[in-house]
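Re-run with default settings, no changes from the original entry. Doing this only to confirm the output is reproducible before filing.
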Amino acid sequence: MDDNKEKFGRRDDSPNFNRKKVCRAHSKKVVLNYRDPDSLKRFVTERGKILPRRITGLCAKDQRVLTREVKKARVLAYLPFVKK
C-alpha cells in the first residue's frame, strides 16, 4: 500500500481508482418524456430493448422513469415494440 502511494502520489491517481458515477439525467438536465421519442431512442437498442442502468448511466429512480416512459411511448405508437 505504501509503495502504491509513493508511485502514484495520491490514491486518486492510481489506475484502479473509480470515480463516482453521476446520473446523466441530472447532470445534463435530460427530460424523459414519452412524447419525445428521439430522446428515448438513445436508451433503446436496435431490437427495441431498453438498455440497462449500467450502460445508460442513469440512477435507479431515473431508470424506472425511463422504463415507464418507453412503455407509454410504445403503447401510444411513438416507439415501435420491435424494430425489424
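The CA atoms of residues 25 and 31 lie 7 Å apart. The helical segments are 2-8, 24-27, 37-41, 53-56, 60-75.
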